[in-house]
Amino acid sequence: MSVNVKWISGKHFQGKGSASDVTVAMDASPDHGGEGMGPTPMEMLLIGMGGCSGIDVVDILKKSRQDITGLEINISGVRANDYPKVYTKIHLEFVITGTKVDTAAVERAIKLSHEKYCSAMAMLGKTAEITHEYKIINS
Fold this sequence. Notes:
Blueprint: E1 3-9, E2 12-17, E3 23-27, H1 41-63, E4 67-79, E5 87-99, H2 103-117, H3 119-124, E6 129-138
């Protein structure tokens, strides 16, 4: 896997994956001289972790024959005060919507993603305490 990151201007960069050929914007936050042209690189790490875990959870729930119609993951992170200011705590809130979604299946899917499949979570878990909760909205 490879990606390309290109400086656009100021603190605005664009990244592109070689496999997807899709471009994403990144920028520093305005309080660090950015212009708000995209998520910060540290936000992108949390977004990537959410995508990684989300793919796992949806796949596992579908294979478990759960009738899910939606998944949102709200993620918050706390960073260290000193450089390199790594994440020290990350919390994920999974919001699953569907029909007659089984609690045990959701717990299993999140656990498997957290402990076995999500490589982004495994990497970030080296420096951060990762916690989660979930909410099921049955329609």
